[in-house]
Amino acid sequence: MRHISHFQSSFGSRVVVALMGLGLVGFVVFHMLGNLQVFEGPEALNSYAATLRDMPILLWAARIGLLGVVIVHITLAIRLALRNRRARPVAYAVREYRRASLASRTMALTGSVLVLFIVFHLLHLTAGIADPSVHNRLDAAGRLDVYGKVVHAFQNPLYVALYLVGQLALGVHLSHAVSGSLQTLGIEHAAFNRLFKRAGLAVGLFVVLGNLAIIFAIFFGIVGA
Asked: Which is the most buried residue in 52, 85, 174, 215, by most CB within 10 A?
């Protein structure tokens, strides 16, 4: 019975991690698409941000819910990793990586980098603590100038470098998160496994290239104040 409950607990945790991972993937895609409005100019992006702020209950519910999902996702992932390590206390003399991708082998590393990046991102563009110089600046319509804040941020080479590291970790993490989560949920078949891996890579590239387009367009002066 102990072995059965152990298996059920491990399996249940993996399913929860997979579901939450897919939910976070959806948020990351939505977040990137919203930010792409920077290419439409300050009116579009500031209006979008103001619309979100005009629904404070929903906005804070989403923020708190997202934070809770992230915390539970990280906690369960760490617990699963530690449980797997305890179940195999003696390391393999030779590790076999022929079937494991680079993304799958570095999930813990990229996940750790992402946690640090998310904290920095919240302190930077959300809370304005990392750079308070333009945090509360308003546009001509009296709205918070999110467009100006983003442009100001990515004109700074230091912030560009930090965000590039974050995007690298995000892309690698996403490329395995999609396919790995689908396989954990039992959506696995020899005919579809290659498709799932390609889907994971496609989602990762889609998100990262969208974010990089914003960063580089501002840094090289294509988009500006």
From this structure: 174
What's the pLDDT tens digit per position in 101-132? 777 788 889 989 999 999 999 999 989 999 99
Rounded to an integer, what distance in angstroms lies between the CA atom of residue 140 and that of residue 207?
31
Mean pLDDT of the 154-176 span: 95
φ, ψ dihedrals at 39, nearest 5°:
-75, -15
- Residue entry with tokens 């590790």: 95
Q: Provide the pLDDT confidence category of residue 187 given band limits of 50, 70 and 90.
A: low
Domains (range + CATH), the chain: 2-219 (1.20.1300.10)
Cβ contact 207:174 at 8 Å: yes
**How many angstroms separate the first and last alpha carbons of the chain?**
65
> In a 3-state reduction of DSSP, which class is residue 152?
helix
